[in-house]
Amino acid sequence: MTGARTFASDNWAGIHPSVLDAMVAANGDHVPAYGADPVTARAIALFKEHFGDDADVYLAFNGTGANVVGLESMLRPFEAVICAEGAHINVDECGAPERFLGSKLITVPTPDGKLTPALVEAAAVGVGDEHHVQPRVVSISQSTEVGTCYLIDEIDALASWAHARGMLLHLDGARLANAAASLGVGLGAFGSAAGVDVLSFGGTKNGAMAAEAVVSFFPAEESSLRFIRKQSMQLASKMRFVSAQFIALLTDDVWRSNAAHANSMARRLAEGVSQVPGVTLAYPTEANGVFAVLPPAVTASVQEVYPFYVWDESTGVVRWMASFDTTEDDVDGLVSTVAEMMSLHG
Amino acid sequence: MTGARTFASDNWAGIHPSVLDAMVAANGDHVPAYGADPVTARAIALFKEHFGDDADVYLAFNGTGANVVGLESMLRPFEAVICAEGAHINVDECGAPERFLGSKLITVPTPDGKLTPALVEAAAVGVGDEHHVQPRVVSISQSTEVGTCYLIDEIDALASWAHARGMLLHLDGARLANAAASLGVGLGAFGSAAGVDVLSFGGTKNGAMAAEAVVSFFPAEESSLRFIRKQSMQLASKMRFVSAQFIALLTDDVWRSNAAHANSMARRLAEGVSQVPGVTLAYPTEANGVFAVLPPAVTASVQEVYPFYVWDESTGVVRWMASFDTTEDDVDGLVSTVAEMMSLHG
Amino acid sequence: MTGARTFASDNWAGIHPSVLDAMVAANGDHVPAYGADPVTARAIALFKEHFGDDADVYLAFNGTGANVVGLESMLRPFEAVICAEGAHINVDECGAPERFLGSKLITVPTPDGKLTPALVEAAAVGVGDEHHVQPRVVSISQSTEVGTCYLIDEIDALASWAHARGMLLHLDGARLANAAASLGVGLGAFGSAAGVDVLSFGGTKNGAMAAEAVVSFFPAEESSLRFIRKQSMQLASKMRFVSAQFIALLTDDVWRSNAAHANSMARRLAEGVSQVPGVTLAYPTEANGVFAVLPPAVTASVQEVYPFYVWDESTGVVRWMASFDTTEDDVDGLVSTVAEMMSLHG
Amino acid sequence: MTGARTFASDNWAGIHPSVLDAMVAANGDHVPAYGADPVTARAIALFKEHFGDDADVYLAFNGTGANVVGLESMLRPFEAVICAEGAHINVDECGAPERFLGSKLITVPTPDGKLTPALVEAAAVGVGDEHHVQPRVVSISQSTEVGTCYLIDEIDALASWAHARGMLLHLDGARLANAAASLGVGLGAFGSAAGVDVLSFGGTKNGAMAAEAVVSFFPAEESSLRFIRKQSMQLASKMRFVSAQFIALLTDDVWRSNAAHANSMARRLAEGVSQVPGVTLAYPTEANGVFAVLPPAVTASVQEVYPFYVWDESTGVVRWMASFDTTEDDVDGLVSTVAEMMSLHG
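Above: the input entities. Below: the structure tokens describing the complete assembly.
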């Protein structure tokens, strides 16, 4: 690997300059630890500007932490989470949800990474039967792990389905900014307005160093999130530096410009590779990820130039992620490399 | 609070300039996520220079996380940890150890925050009896929560006691740098040389933003620390920025100068207040914390000028922590304020 | 050991004839499994006769199971249980509470196995502080592990203390029958009338084979005990045979006569040994356990004739338990053996 | 329901007379609690006669308990269990495995309830990748939840596959007796001879009241099963009465005659209903369960006479279980009722 920009993951990128500046600016004299500081107060005020005054905000270190903490606030161990088979909480968190929630994940195969009321309905079995875990939370990812986005109406339909059954809706928004930019809406569109009860909002993939947030619209005294975050090892002592990262992202719509740029680079890439003979896209490109089917020999040759991950070995699907700092030249370079290798090995 | 330097906690301080510089320097182009990057490789090499080639290193976000991850690598849920009653893992982690290890903490009252083989022996009951948890790990804090330090021989004696019984020794080194500076030894003196099996090494209180490490001398395949860290939500995606913090601290002995300075300010403070009539020290000042007994009215008056915590309401003991950026003027100001309030309210 | 009656534990005894008869009578044709059978319906009706119509009853296999299931219905993992240092949940359940609740037990030394509001008050620290576990449940044992009994007023005082702070009261009644017989009250005196929220009622030590109950006065929908019992591996498939055991005990006051007999034998024993020169009782004999201080050589010699356990090696306290089938001859035999060995070795 | 014999479940049956006799015979004078008694010694000796001298035996209360305890002895929380989608541990234990092991169950759809090396191979992904749980145990049910049996060679093939990868094989033998009777082999054929590392052997469905066993061929010091059983709330105090149940079943091949009878009744039923026009069997009848496809109206009408469960509402599959006390008349009655209702509603 050259150290240059790759398409392996949006967390291979570094820190956006605005974020780094904000962290530097937050340094200086002593302030209270654990979030009782003015920088954190400012960050939380900004969250409320974006997500609404009913948003209860708890900053965390990483995405797995934010998901587990948020889910724990909604669940008891005999209650289950219904999620897509490919959900990050199911396949990429080393079993942290089962380990720390004690709860079962009920997984549902999906064609495009998105749950629907019909899919969830079929999975929500055994209600009231003590031999079965009790479905309590529907968890969706926005944007999804395969680069698609839920429309607001689709989220709303899932929320209505859940609430009608005394269930709750969780949203893993590790790439929420990309979805908001893609749909042309504000971040608050994915909160209580859409019926979401608790969400994770990811700063890291959006240009931060390590900053994630649990945003809860579930009653604070029931959620007990303060205690859950601390017990779950996600409370930073020098919190101001986590908060500063969000201040940077949530000011002057840096979050949106970073996400929109990444989305735009992904679209350029999707358009480019889909014109290469023999290359087909596996999913629509609705956020910052591009999924294409390549012959294995082509995949291997392209990876020698640009590191990226094979998404599914059995189908030959590969994943390319664009980030806030991906350039048009990066994209064009990848497209021409794919084209070259397809002509050689395809 | 004025925003100036206080004596509330060493985590009310900001980031040491060297650390911030290293984080800025680590920014730039894409590198692999989750620690497979050259910055992390450099950090781990530096750890090995300090702790020895047998050190197996896993960086984490915070002290609670590092302690829980380290302990999990040594324990099964029916096995217990013996620790001092005032240990951070017992009183300041919101029950994270019990929650995530499933293990009982067997707590031992101590006069000075330090365990001894005799104290541990008395607590290690029920061995082989299936009705009792099985003592497996002795956990000590270095420096302790009350500002004292174990001598190397004292650690060695605990390690020998533990190993003779098939048990292991864990060291919570959230302030390990302060102990090393105080004793005039290197960090490696607290590793396998002293019989320690797994330790947490704290960067945050030493001048980092959020950087802790689990250093294990326990066989890697048994410890499974890679998986435990990820499942325990302590694996950073943009790891290079955690690693960079440690590179700064572990280069040119920044860790030692930061710690030695904080220790020196604590000694100055201890000497100053102990000359104020009516003020007595509760514990010897062997690291960067000063513990003194004040009348409640004095405590309240001094807190209006300098924020700090009451350590034990029942005894009137207060805690003052010095940090890498505490100045002589800060110390002298606190001493004269204490003296003034003692003459007014004492 | 001779196979004769011993004083080792009330669970060294067999099954009371009424219980065995009831189990035999419950055999026969098919009935629904998991408690949806007429035998279980009858048992639950009997529980309500004894404990009141607001009693929500869940039968379980053993005492550890009943305690853990009951506590889980009252707690979230960051919430803690305050209990006596010698409580069964703390010292005799191999850490099952920490393991399965995820909660910390805050333990309190007691002179006689009994908590008081003052003792509990001193242990209920850190309320509202996210670094500390949050006290949620006070758990008491009735009768206690050292053979003493709480008066109804003492339980009521603890309940009032707890409820005034939004906390709950749990009662481990593995030997509740002995306490009721000792105090001359009904079982219901220890339920909601005394402010108890959830209790374990032990059948096994009272003459059953393996039958314990969780009796909850906590709102059923909040407690979710149906699901907790199943998930906690305490739901019997052929439930009728657990239920039948309780039908036997709760009919014609078999529970009381069994307990009263055991208490009476314990009193006879306490009176006998306390007249042996050099033998002193360690605790008042208020239920079916007798605790005396013996010289080690005497203990060892008496154990060769009658198996029993040393309660505390450091103080020389031994424990003798009477059961429903202990005879006057058994007691007199033990007393004379103690007297003989005291004159030889004392 | 009439109280007569049904086809709802083999745990709707009562206790076999031999088992009840053995429990009565075990009553009498005092014996040590928790399994240190001669009855338990005899039971364990019988287990070794059947399962081999390398069998390490731990009696438990119920099937969920035996499965969870056995699995816990083989796993750490980041390690996963691969099992059939319809496995009891996945669908009928209210999430107890995830809750208490902390581990993920990786589930595999199967045509007939049986795993194969090819099916397991496809599910064992992410080995060595810290983002994924690590496959550690393959768990199979014998006989399966749909009434099929693994041949010895099929088990052996799974064991070889697992062991070649450093993994282990667990067998849920809640109906192991039925499989042994069906295949005409001894119980030991499913132990270490077939490469099984840990199994649950079910007494309850075979005619016991409540008696299950964990039989481990995994090294005892690694398995730590003594402590795991106690901490998992599965250790009976009056153990002799659990042990006595197994003594009855394991003496004079009562286990085999009970199982063979139930299997024979199932075969009679399968043959009978498969001759009813319009009724088809969903799975081969290889043990004591019969699975047939019925029109919903027929199912409802037959259920009014004979209680039984619908296995899969979406496909109309129903389940009939035979037990040790099912009679030919019971079977013939059900067959003729099915025939009658098919002619009316089919």
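Note for the figure: Chain A has a mean pLDDT of 96.
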